[in-house]
Amino acid sequence: MRYRDVKFRLVLLSFLQFAVWGAYLTSMGRYLGSVGMGGSIGWFYSVQGLVSIFMPAIVGVVADRWVPAQRMLALCHAVSAFLMAVTGYIGMLEGSDVLFDDIFWTYALAVAFYMPTLALFNSVSYSVLGRAGLDTVKAFPPIRVFGTVGFVVSMLLVDVTGFQDNYSQFFASAVWGVIVAVYSLTLPNCPVAVGERKRSLVSMLGLDAFGLFRNRRMALFFLFSVLLGAALQVSNGFANTYIKGFGSMEEYAGTFAVEHTNVLISLSQLSEIVCILLIPFFLSRFGIKRVMVMAMVAWVFRFGFFALGNPAMPGVLLFILSMLVYGVAFDFFNISGSLFVDKEVPVGLRSSAQGLFMLMTNGLGASVGVVAAQAVVDHFTLGQLCFAGWPSAWFVFAGYALMVTVLFVLLFKEKKMA
């Protein structure tokens, strides 16, 4: 397949893959708050981490050994879309009377099938690019940019249609999910690993990816993936609700940032577009350690600017800066880390290793991080009844990111990528 054909196919896949997520990820907390579940925001976001502890690894094993990755991608998206539609339907039927148990479990199952698709998307992309004879470090980031474009388009559609305050965002996600499920079936085949007939029990269960922990550098990399993963969903879970909360004060009521929070937050994703394109240059020039340090420092500023800003001029400029540094914070860690793992592991472990990376970041890290963040927010805001406590919570998050940065600089030793 020619490079142009490969690029176009993967660009469209990238766009659709992240449009599914963009429909609800930044606005769900706002919806939950509007139906009286503000205290449960942490649980809804933490479930993404909880299911990522086991689902990406399990699905990755199946994709490595038995079912081609593009077919697993289609299956997972189809099931997730159905369950997300059910979640929206329940929300529509019950309106403002909807309860936690009514929508949490169908949402949790939908997320359980969506989260593995993030690792599968990487595996499919790397497989297709590799078979086309292309360097993934150079070819993948420009393709991944269109995932961010898809995320932004989806979240802006949710904003302008008024869906960010209601259940319709789940229907929007489901529609994107059906489209990407069908499209995935048209992608080039990603062959499963062919190995010896006799395999150990560890190999058959896909646990051989955990053998990477025997390498000290890889073990430290995964450990810090957990620690930094704790920051990934904090702003996604609470930023929209936090900024909207300023609307209760007369001087901020009616400001653009309060009324169209998703538009403001979309600057984060626009920042990603630039940062993703810069990844090949930064990795080749500075190496994985310095790039990861840049990401960690960016998280410090991300949270710190939230603490100091407000929706009116000039405070809104700090909110804008927080959005702009997000590209460095997220992509210099997530995308670079994924590429790092791809280069470090054997081809037969590619999907399993990507699943393990997802487990550490969006699994252990994100699940513990967002639940802890909910506790921090509740402590300083008295269960979100005292708005004045929010800046203190953001400063705590910034301090945590700074602590992780210092430890990483001291402990992680780099071997330059080839």
Description:
With 418 residues, the chain is mainly alpha-helical. The protein has a single domain (3-189, 208-411), classed as Growth Hormone, Chain: A (Up-down Bundle), CATH 1.20.1250.20. Helices cover 76% and strands 0% of the residues. The protein contains 16 helices and no strands.
What is the H/E string?
HHHHHHHHHHHHHHHH
Assigned CATH class: Mainly Alpha
Main pleated sheet: none
Q: State the fourth-level CATH superfamily.
A: MFS general substrate transporter like domains
Radius of gyration: 20 Å
**Helical segment count:** 16
Binned strand content: under 5%
Helix content: over 70%
Average pLDDT figure? 86
**Uncertain spans, ≥5 residues at pLDDT below 50?**
none
Principal-axes geometry comes out as globular
Q: How far from one another are the termini? A: 26 Å
* Number of E strands: 0
CATH topology: Growth Hormone, Chain: A
Number of domains: 1
CATH arch. level architecture = Up-down Bundle
Classify the secondary structure makeup into a structural class: mainly alpha
